[in-house]
Amino acid sequence: MSAPVAIERDGSIAVIVIDYPPVNALAHAVRTALLAAVERLDADPTVQAIVLHGVGRNFIAGADITEFDQPGQPPRLNDLLSRLEACSKPVIAALHGATLGGGAETALACHYRASASDLKLGFPEVSLGLLPGAGGTVRLPRLAGWQASLELMTGGKPVDFERALALGLIDRALDGDPRADAVAWARELVAAGASPRRLRELPPPAATPELFATWRSSLPTAARRLPAPGHIIDALQAAATRPFEQALDRARELFEECRRSDESRALRYLFFAERGSGADRDAAAAVESAGVVGAGTMGAGIAISLATAGIGVTLVDSRPESLAAGLARVTSTLEGSGRKGRMTAAAAAAAIARVRGAAGLDALAGADLVIEAVFENLAVKQELFARLGAMCGPRTVLATNTSTLDVDAIAAASGRAADVVGMHFFSPAHVMRLVEIVRGRQSSRAALATARAVTRRMGKIGVTVGNCFGFVGNRMLYAYGREKELMLLEGATPAAIDRALEEFGMAMGPNAVGDLAGLDIGYHARREWRERPDDPRFYRVSDRLAELGRYGQKTGRGFYRYEGADRRPQLDPEVLELIRQEARKLGVTEREIEDSEIVGRCICALINEGAHILEEGIAACPADIDVIWCNGYGFPRHRGGPMFHADTVGLAVVLEAVLRYQAGQGARYWTPAPLLASLAERGGSFAEWQAARAKRN
Ligand code: 3H9
């Protein structure tokens, strides 16, 4: 590997070149070399100005996140940036691409900022449970003001070139090669006698305490429960009231508190877990054309995702009215994205043009990939795969979007099981990033690699899982849902259950989720599940509601009642009465159920099922389970996912809870998974278990 930092000369202009793939993170080696370069060039009388340039697709993507698990090694980024800012010659940052976190802070410590138009400048630290800890909270307000600083840092979203220019963050636009243009501008600055401009020498703009108080109280509830957003506001407030150095020290202290928090550990873990283990070892086939069978909500969502990724799509539905509705949904959704600025109007029009409709499957004969999204019924899917298997070309990968059915049974019907995989999308498919890629018994490595590559190309997170009822996500959901249904019969109201789990951090309580997804969907899936528990209490309340036509939001009634324009969920005494009747019929005695039991039973059920899934090899590692639950089921990201959460609270604590529920509820659902029991007994964790396995392989 070449040196992470090099010095190149262009006459009296020196260029510090950072070349540290993949994203020029400010790792220890980079900081050390950068500091040495600055010292050397500052002392060199032949140098008149310095340009800071990042090789590759971006300037600097921030601090090296892998280093945050250990105490920092000098030089600290703060000290390096203070030295850079103190340089006696003009230092010019040549920005392009991702300029994030510590990268943006580096740009602010430079005296001048020039940028190419592909800039994405921002402070995403909050999404890692951190705050900009290398002077960003003190320097940015001096340039962009308080409002923009609060917005950028508590929101974490980067700004593009135009917004950065409007905020005064950019002094000069670079039209051609960023490095060469920045050197030319440095020469102009020298000729004009420009001297270093240090943000630390500017006073902070005026601010009132109310400004920060208002911003604090306007944070969303979920953000208010976490340390980082509040700490960011504290750091900015310190920058408004204290001298520069003291404000820097305060930001550094607050950063350290965040870095050590469980929330930040969890979010950093997810950052890497979601990126998987890097490049795929198996080669994927190129996918230029795809077919989607079934033009319902799911099929249309999948078609939108494929088309947005630049893949030509044929959407097939034998019912003309369904096909027309599906195509109309594709067009209106993409047009809406163009209008709302989620993509350019030209990109939306291009994506719309990539989707065409067809009534018959023969239109798919030459497709590279076909994804089925028809009614969730095994016989229907088997019949379809038999036809697809016979009619598609030998290179076509066939994917089923089933959420619970047996992928092997569907694959067998195709007559070419090696080409068949599961691709389980989540609804709405064009929004949700998760795809479970299901490995059938005979799925070829190439077919799986192709499904993973297409998933990545759509900007989604693909997790490869084994085949069983519900795969990873829905199988665990059944354990979680089973407990909440039992607790309904035992006396917890739907609202009490939802509130307790939302307090824990779930994006939505399970009863509200059921109403949103449609209680009929789960009802039908359970009828298709041959090995479902033979227990009259199992999903009794959901089943009764579905049988009464109370499907949830779409019928205006489910666990809750939805009335009025805002369709806010309202308690429904009829549902409470129905639950009491069902409990009486089943002989379940009602009792007071505390929030801690609601959360404990639902979350321990998830963890115990997750441990079974790991033992069976259905999930390759605990991180895969966590990625699935945080991206598909609204598990709180700041807890890192169910398996990370289990490690955080301690497996002995989880085991003790499982045994307590066993004593109260019986062993039917509450037998500890052997992996959980053995790890807990020897003081281990899922993370250690995974590390030991990775070492062996
Ligand atoms: C910070 O700066 C704190 C300071 O305020 C204070 C310090 C005192 N570190 O995402 P990709 C790896 S906090 C280490 O697939 P893309 C990533 O794991 C930091 N590694 O590419 C992956 O590895 P692999 C604030 C990093 O093109 C590879 O690079 N900054 C880092 O889709 C490619 O990543 C951020 O939060 C890092 N900082 O997106 C920015 N960044 O190939 C985080 C990436 O082994 N980064 N990697 O799987 C990003 O948002 C995206 O990676 C980026 C590129 C937009 C840059």
C-alpha geometry: globular
Count up the helices.
29
Instruction: Give the strand order of the largest sheet, numbering strands 1, 2, ... along the chain.
Output: 12-11-10-13-14-15-16-17
DSSP strand count: 19
Mean pLDDT: 96
Low-pLDDT runs: none
In this structure, how is the largest beta sheet organized?
A: 8 strands, mixed
How much helix is in the residues?
40-55%
The radius of gyration over CA amounts to 28 Å
Distance between the termini: 26 Å
- Helix and strand composition category: alpha/beta
Task: Note the beta-strand portion.
Answer: 5-15%
Bound molecules: (S)-3-Hydroxyhexanoyl-CoA
Characteristic terms for this protein:
697 residues, alpha/beta, eight-stranded mixed sheet, 19 strands, globular, binds (S)-3-Hydroxyhexanoyl-CoA
Provide structural commentary.
This protein is α/β, with parallel strands linked by helices and 697 residues long. The chain is built from 29 helices and 19 strands. The mean pLDDT is 96. Bound molecules: (S)-3-Hydroxyhexanoyl-CoA. (S)-3-Hydroxyhexanoyl-CoA is lined by residues 22-23, 25, 58, 61-66, 77, 98, 100-102, 105, 124-125, 128, 130, 132-134, 136, 272, 275, 278.
